[in-house]
Design a protein that fits this description.
The complex is a heterodimer of chains A (121) and B (111).
Chain A lengths: L2 E5 L3 E2 L5 E8 L8 E8 L6 E7 L4 E3 L7 E6 L4 E6 L8 E9 L13 E5 L2
Parallel strand pairs in A: 2-10
Antiparallel strand pairs in A: 1-3, 3-8, 4-5, 4-9, 5-6, 7-8, 9-10
Chain B lengths: L3 E2 L3 E4 L5 E7 L9 E6 L6 E4 L13 E6 L2 E6 L8 E9 L5 E4 L3 E5 L1
Parallel strand pairs in B: 2-10
Antiparallel strand pairs in B: 1-3, 3-7, 4-5, 4-8, 6-7, 8-9, 8-10
The chains are: A mainly beta (121), B mainly beta (111).
């Protein structure tokens, strides 16, 4: 059974870089037609798609975040990662990693439980 | 850029039907599929409807979706207490650089 688990610091200082990793278990991250992505949710607010990636390295970004965001995949570790640079309080959110099947935003697969990242000095 | 607007809240008593709307501010919405997600309190979202009106395996047929032009709807009939959750529509916006946009969200309360 495919499972995803986010990991990373729960607090990041303003202007620094937020780094998160999603560990995939139960299947290969390189499985055909499987995409991987990040979605975030500020406390008490709605959902925002951040980025998606295919195991081949093809990437898809939210245009409003693209200049600060990098998504990458490490097939040897069955993990994919997110980096957000120059963070501000507006980046405080629960960050979810998720599995898409067939397309970069076809969220048919499971999601991680989410990890809260707080931007604060 | 597309904005998908939902009513902030909806409610019903057990057994009733509740309908949630999702309205787009651009005509791009008309070309693309709508997806609906359910988010139970303290949990990750779960896909309820894909491609406007298709249900993933395991979603009961009392949940249905529809789309017409720049608007879409999610209907939940035979309302149950476990349906109390936040619901989000979503769609791909292929204007400019392309973006996947979530709706503003609707809190459904079972009275």
């Amino acid at each position: 059974q495919l499972q995803l688990q986010e990991s990373g610091p729960g607090q990041v200082k303003p202007s620094e870089t937020l780094s998160l990793t999603c560990t995939v278990s139960g299947d290969s991250i390189s499985r055909n037609n499987y995409y991987w992505g990040w979605i975030r949710q500020p406390p008490g607010k709605g959902l925002e798609w951040i980025a998606s990636i295919y195991s081949s390295g093809s990437t898809y970004y939210n245009p409003s975040l693209k200049s600060r965001v990098t998504i990458s995949v490490d097939t040897s570790k069955n993990q994919f990662s997110l980096k957000v640079t120059s963070v501000t309080a507006a980046d405080t959110a629960v960050y979810y990693c998720a599995n898409a099947i067939g397309g970069p935003v076809d969220w048919f697969g499971p999601w991680g439980q989410g990890t809260l990242v707080t931007v604060s000095s | 850029q597309s904005v998908l607007t939902q009513p902030p809240s909806a409610s019903g008593t057990p057994g009733q039907k509740v309908t949630i709307s999702c309205s787009a501010n651009t005509s791009n919405f008309g070309r693309n599929y709508v997806y609906w997600f359910q988010q139970l309190p303290g949990t990750a979202p779960k896909l309820l409807i894909f491609r406007n009106n298709q249900r993933p395996t395991g979603v009961p047929d009392r949940v249905s979706g529809s789309k017409s032009g720049t608007s879409a709807s999610l209907a939940i009939s035979g309302l149950r207490s476990e349906d109390e959750a936040d619901y989000y529509c979503a769609a791909w916006d292929d204007s400019l650089s392309g973006n996947y946009v979530f709706g503003t969200g609707t809190k459904v309360t079972v009275l």
